[in-house]
């Protein structure tokens, strides 16, 4: 374990510095994603409030939202710190320990260049001829996970909204019962105290739904994790494509070389036709060409070898991290589901208590 | 009301208070006391050239001497119930006549001849007749007896006799007019109290009615969203291995919550909503009763005033006044007795209905 001096992650900082802080987190994450493409990098919490139900404000400055985001950022750092590979990264370490100049340090690593090209490639569409089945399946899974969690979160928000309505309208009972009890003699006491319980009932929903927000945040983390998972798959696809292109290029160069050497034209080419029509090259020119090609082929073969190696390494370490991630995901989600069930049970217990009390009051009317 | 241990031999389960010796009958009286049993059931649709309407079967069983037979079965339509109600109001202007279900309820978007509407109406008509049967005075009303026993053609011809619609309308108009003229001068304090009470009660019961409907609506909306919530978890479990069972478990729990919500909603619509609605109607009826009492008193007062001015024809006047005074007193007593009785019943009804709501909610949360 390491002594982690947590930076003040926008606790009592004024608005301006909070935003800068968030952007520094973003910078850190981008750096990690680019530097460790085979790792499922933990996600950041949402920048803007999403999946809100009506009572929660969608305002990013709302203190509840800010607090929940702060917790999310802390959680992000904990995830990175507990990752066997990521925790050893120097930039991460200095993020936690170095006040000034951290940004410059990150930029000096030059990861931006890699980032730009990778980013372009990730967004491009291309077809891989021999996709790795496992990665294809994983990509499908991550798409499904993303879609199902976001659907779930949306419906949960709507359910929360409705539940809020049911509870709050009961509060009106409290008020009217109290007013009514004023004109009643025998029924008055019962009505009045029942009304009080209705108020308690109506007020209880606020805490209940606040707790549920934590559950929603846990699910959201995995919604964003699904994106990270998908990114790894895409990077692999990219590598594979790269590899295939390199191999293709090598093959065509070899072919060209052969054609030049033997003088046979196997494939039709305009150049070939024109040279036939307008005169062939001199043997010296041909020799020169062959030599260049042979050099290129040599380079190409070495590159291909290293690319293959790179690819195999990537697959090996990616798959190791994916297994780790799967276990973490199953564990975390199971716990989240259990805690959700516990929350529901506690909500029902509160309900039972309130209505038992109310029933007693009613029967005394 | 837990104050009294003394128990009346007539109503072994209900304690009575000294001020309401007159009120010996309650809606929930044991079968040994009742001698008139009425049920309303079997709605049937009738189609004629002019109209389509529903009749209900009214079955009466009785041991009373004044009835020729001990069992009767007749068919009545809503119009007939309206007729009965207006006859009762005419004969007993200061008694509290139970409410009838309304002609056609716009709220809830129920079709005029939908099963739901017909069933709701049937239940309300059943309650209406039984409340009359349980009323110490109304139960012996002649028109009531005819309603329960006469065949269709007999009822028609009987209806044609007696003061028509216009005279009844006139009575109501006079009653309203006299109350518009300002509070009756010599209204006994008791009735002013009742008026004040009714005004507030009317307000509160209407509010409660609205609140209860709103809660029903919110619960229904909640139910609709929950219906979608469960299946998402099942869908998700299809992509998972390790956590598939947990997800399926949650999905099935959510579905059970849905069913429990349905039950809770049914409880509301079968119990609380109809009762609140009845008491909304009751509060209007009671306002009317109070106005009619005021009107009768007004007649007396104006005659007394006239007497003060006309020194001659004293005797004639005195006789009239005497009669009116009697009338007023009887009206007052009737109202008072009825009022107490009504309040007791209302308390009982409210108590049981809200307790029922609480129980339903308990059941909901337990499930």
TrEMBL record, chain A:
Biological processes per GO annotation: positive regulation of autophagosome assembly; protein transport
SMART domains: PX
Source species of the chain: Xiphorhynchus elegans (elegant woodcreeper)
InterPro entries in alphabetical order: AH/BAR_dom_sf (IPR027267), PX_dom (IPR001683), PX_dom_sf (IPR036871), PX_SNX4 (IPR034902), SNX4 (IPR034783), SNX4_BAR (IPR037430)
Ranges of residues in domain PX: 1-102
PANTHER family: SORTING NEXIN-4
Pfam families: PX
One GO cellular component term: plasma membrane
Protein name according to UniProt: SNX4 protein
Alphabetically ordered keywords of this record: Protein transport, Transport
Gene3D superfamilies assigned to the protein according to its UniProt record, in alphabetical order: Arfaptin homology (AH) domain/BAR domain, Phox-like domain
Family according to the record: Belongs to the sorting nexin family.
GO MF entries: phosphatidylinositol-3-phosphate binding
UniProtKB/TrEMBL annotation, chain B:
Domain PX: 34-155
Transmembrane segments: none
GO biological process: autophagy of mitochondrion; endocytic recycling; piecemeal microautophagy of the nucleus; protein transport; reticulophagy
Molecular function terms from GO: phosphatidylinositol binding
Keyword Coiled coil among UniProt keywords: yes
Origin: domain of life: Eukaryota
GO cellular component terms, A-Z: early endosome; phagophore assembly site
The keyword Transport is annotated on this UniProt entry: yes
Family indicated by similarity: Belongs to the sorting nexin family.
Name the UniProt record assigns to this protein: SNX7 protein
The species this protein was found in: Xiphorhynchus elegans
Lineage: Eukaryota, Metazoa, Chordata, Craniata, Vertebrata
